[in-house]
Amino acid sequence: MRHLLNPLDFSVEEIDDLLALARDIEQNLPQYAHVCDGKKLATLFYEPSTRTRLSFEAAMLNLGGNVLGFSSANSSSAAKGESVADTIRMISCYSDICAMRHPKEGAAFVAAQKAQIPVINAGDGGHQHPTQTLTDLMTIRSMKGRLDNLTIGLCGDLKFGRTVHSLINAMVRYPNIKFILISPPELRIPDNIREDVLTANNVEFEEVGNLDEAIGKLDILYMTRVQKERFFNEEDYIRLKDCYILDKKKMKLAKEDMYVLHPLPRVNEISVEVDDDPRAAYFKQAQYGVYVRMALIMRLLEVEKPC
Amino acid sequence: MRHLLNPLDFSVEEIDDLLALARDIEQNLPQYAHVCDGKKLATLFYEPSTRTRLSFEAAMLNLGGNVLGFSSANSSSAAKGESVADTIRMISCYSDICAMRHPKEGAAFVAAQKAQIPVINAGDGGHQHPTQTLTDLMTIRSMKGRLDNLTIGLCGDLKFGRTVHSLINAMVRYPNIKFILISPPELRIPDNIREDVLTANNVEFEEVGNLDEAIGKLDILYMTRVQKERFFNEEDYIRLKDCYILDKKKMKLAKEDMYVLHPLPRVNEISVEVDDDPRAAYFKQAQYGVYVRMALIMRLLEVEKPC
Amino acid sequence: MRHLLNPLDFSVEEIDDLLALARDIEQNLPQYAHVCDGKKLATLFYEPSTRTRLSFEAAMLNLGGNVLGFSSANSSSAAKGESVADTIRMISCYSDICAMRHPKEGAAFVAAQKAQIPVINAGDGGHQHPTQTLTDLMTIRSMKGRLDNLTIGLCGDLKFGRTVHSLINAMVRYPNIKFILISPPELRIPDNIREDVLTANNVEFEEVGNLDEAIGKLDILYMTRVQKERFFNEEDYIRLKDCYILDKKKMKLAKEDMYVLHPLPRVNEISVEVDDDPRAAYFKQAQYGVYVRMALIMRLLEVEKPC
């Protein structure tokens, strides 16, 4: 039995295979309408995340399966002191696969050890969020036609941004990737990513403080939200949050085929005037997220592609 | 693509057509069990409303479709600062149609501008709640056999009662409707409804302060809840809330074929002793609400009536 | 129309019949995948109980039906002052059967009087929780092959433990049952159970304060959680909660075919080192809970066993 706990749990070949399935789902959606008939997905959200939860639910419903679960910890047995290990044993009796979101790092790993069903990590604290990474990979491949030979700009909160760290980890496995890391000094990428991932893999990168200078060189611009909850004081948040706002003026400096991604939700780091630019790919990303989760559920449940 | 944001978005002919479909659904329910197979309804409830939400869910399940969504804002991305416009773009990737309840007036209108799926306004602040109005119209037509030539009493909180304002707006489009407006002076109907809707359309109406005097003349009595949250102080609420309570004694003064409607939930404005009176139509109303929402979902999804 | 409000609502024969159906479901699950197609279960949880709610939802989905409802009172109409009687009338329009959890004793009884659909009591305060009792009975019968001629140990909070009281009431109807009641003096079984149920039915029992002495005589050991919310002060809770912890050492004193049950969630009253003991039946219990609820839903909806 396989789980998905970390974006690197799957080899490059397995990811290629999964993205090919997701692509086929996108193109032949109605053919997949019953491949998971009678299967149940449990969504165990110990902290709310509407976007991720609904994306999983839409994915399972699209496959003909059903969904049960909870959307916040206060409506779960956790409030009565039950351990994650006990909860997952119970959930194994109620469903065929589960997606778990938990504020504590490692919660999904603990669950997977006791689970009798496949566990998908739908985010564990600031740690991992592998289905977001799969979504990002599918979006990049769909927009650019490839996952190699790309210059990727990562902009905003590179210190705490979980999705950014995961994306770097996933992309360094492809040939000829270059990163441009765009952030204020306070929110630069952590040392362990810089050294253990980028330098150790001989991946080219530069760190800059200015989006205007960098944007013209990029094939992909990955914007991130500057999350209020990551800051110790209000002042720092207000000073920094608006520094890296993408607007029409900046988009004029970018290549014609540079696509903008964002894990969403955004607050104001991408001006709404950019939404209608054909290079804005962040809403398409939400759609790809459904297809890639459909493919993932099928793989983990070992459901065959319909013929 | 059509939305339903305001009860007047549909013409009288379109409403007649919708109510005819709802009537057919009532009479041939099993025939509709699969007309929305594979379709998904998103219920986006930024404020809780169990009744409305479950009515929509029952409607979609009765049609063979599925449901996903959230039941309060604190379990939604809104808590992370996402705009309604962004949320609806995401939801457009996850579902085929949505019903939105929001505390702010106009929220559903904003959503409809960005949505790639039909949006049903399931209540936006004190503004509109069009499916309640459709439910009321279906109930009146089912009980009385017509939507014209009626004397309709509206009783209780006519100042803040959103459903009452919508019903007046909807009914003035039918011939020979007379209203009797029964309320304490503090909760009389607003000037804009009195002048711009009733007077402007040459609709006969009278304003009275006493339910006993008026009840004998009515074909329909529409009771409303006096909502605590509309009052600035506790005293005013207590003084007024019990003034307009319908009981068995008052029902004796009414015609044999006068039906009582109420948008529910009630608190104590209708005594439970009235519940078994055959003229009490307020629980039937809940059932009609499911049928009319089934018809609405079919129309907006352009699903054909089964043959 | 039948409801299930109290574990004794069903005769011994009816329970035998229900458990036989549950057993058949366990052995032939796929045959039951469509027996409730088109039916809707409403889960009305006025207080959160993830375990019970998800067990009902899994049961209904396994039968091909659908689910709607709410998981806590603050997202229900109760917050607007609606009575349970009015809510159940509304719910009768939206669903075919309902499971209700409510903090007030007797709430499900009130609901059943006004309901036009079968009502299952999914817990009303400290009063009744009949589907837990059915689950316990199925587990005992599955593990031991019988419901008579058993020595049953009940351990922990016997004063407030609703599940323990219900299990005693249910088991005294079978021949040759003996109870050993293991608790601290403060949490002994209430007088009315001791006298009106045990003594009145001539059922053999002993009350002891020490799990070590009793465990060797038992066929079934039913452990319970010592719930913090039952205590008036923190000190009493801390002093008592760890007194009756089952661990490997104690399990060595037990028979080879003594099975351990627990209604779950546990906190620490069963050490996790016991989980891998083949006599630990408390996770299997969760699975039996789904089968017995499937059987119950079928019976109350008068759905026939597939042939």
What would a concise description of this structure say?
Three copies of one chain form a homotrimer. The first copy, chain A, has 307 residues and is an alpha/beta fold. The first copy, chain A, has two domains: 7-129 and 289-300, Rossmann fold, CATH 3.40.50; 131-286, Aspartate/ornithine carbamoyltransferase (Rossmann fold).
Give an overview in words.
Three copies of one chain form a homotrimer. Chain A has 307 residues and is of the alpha/beta class. The first copy, chain A, has two domains: 7-129 and 289-300, Rossmann fold (3-Layer(aba) Sandwich); 131-286, Rossmann fold, CATH 3.40.50. In chain A, 38% of the residues lie in helices and 15% in strands. Chain A has helices at residues 12-27, 50-62, 84-94, 107-114, 130-144, 162-171, 191-199, 211-215, 234-241, 248-251, 282-300, and strands at residues 40-45, 66-70, 97-102, 119-124, 150-155, 177-182, 204-208, 220-223, 259-261. Chain A has a five-stranded parallel beta sheet. A four-stranded parallel beta sheet of chain A has the order 2-1-3-4, with helices on both faces. The B-C interface holds B 30, 33, 48-51, 54-55, 57-58, 61-62, 67, 71-72, 264-267, 272, 283, 286-287, 289-290 and C 38, 40, 42, 66, 68-70, 74-77, 79-82, 85-87, 89-91, 93-95. Chains A, B, C: It catalyses: carbamoyl phosphate + L-aspartate = N-carbamoyl-L-aspartate + phosphate + H(+).
**Shape estimate of chain A:** globular
CATH class of the largest domain in chain A: Alpha Beta
Number of domain units of chain A? 2
Strand order of the largest sheet of chain A: 7-6-5-8-9
CATH domain fold name of the largest domain in chain A: Rossmann fold
Low-confidence stretches of chain A: none
Give the chain pair forming the largest contact, with residue counts: A-C, 24 and 28 residues
Distance between the termini of chain A: 24 Å
**SS-derived structural category of chain A:** alpha/beta
Q: Quick one: CATH superfamily of the largest domain in chain A?
A: Aspartate/ornithine carbamoyltransferase
CATH architecture label name of the largest domain in chain A: 3-Layer(aba) Sandwich
How are helices and strands ordered from N to C of chain A? HEHEHEHEHEHEHEHEHHEH
